[in-house]
Sequence to fold (230 residues):
Amino acid sequence: AQSVTQPDIHITVSEGASLELRCNYSYGATPYLFWYVQSPGQGLQLLLKYFSGDTLVQGIKGFEAEFKRSQSSFNLRKPSVHWSDAAEYFCAVGANTGTASKLTFGTGTRLQVTL
Amino acid sequence: GAGVSQSPSNKVTEKGKDVELRCDPISGHTALYWYRQSLGQGLEFLIYFQGNSAPDKSGLPSDRFSAERTGGSVSTLTIQRTQQEDSAVYLCASSPRTSGVETQYFGPGTRLLVL
Fold:
């Protein structure tokens, strides 16, 4: 069964600083990887996804993530954080079991941005 | 176009009562998913519907939980004899489900509080 680990529960960065959120996955086959963001009281919004091809993927709001198979990682990065980026970030791995297409989520990383 | 909608936004109920949560997927999406997000937890898969196929109920935590999808569109998640541990945010998502793993589009969720 697949699993996702987000080792950082809470991260605080200053506005304008760079950001990296860690995600490690466990999955026997080629993973389908996602990053979602959840603002307070909101549902989840897709930031970016990796299915195949270029291992560096670009997403919305200036985010990018790099798939590293050798490290089983899919870390999310942003060169300069804005105060509006404060939210909770979830990494997920997708599995197609034939009859179902499930996402397994990490426990999330809460990002706080100081001015 | 319209996204995934859920109702009610918030629900407060007394222990032992039954509750129904509703999800309207994106028009044309054949796959529908329910997840539960408990405080401090990641998202937990509950159930998956795909077209006219039998639903994947493997994530339902107990027989107090059930879900149906009428006409291949709207879905209702029912929790019978609610318990305090059922308090959580219940998220619905949909996807086109053309093939394989797809991006899931999430609704804003229903926040359930069981007193």
User: Anything to note?
Assistant: Chain B is about 0% helix and 45% strand. Chain B touches chain A through 29 residues (CB under 8 Å). The mean pLDDT of chain B is 91.
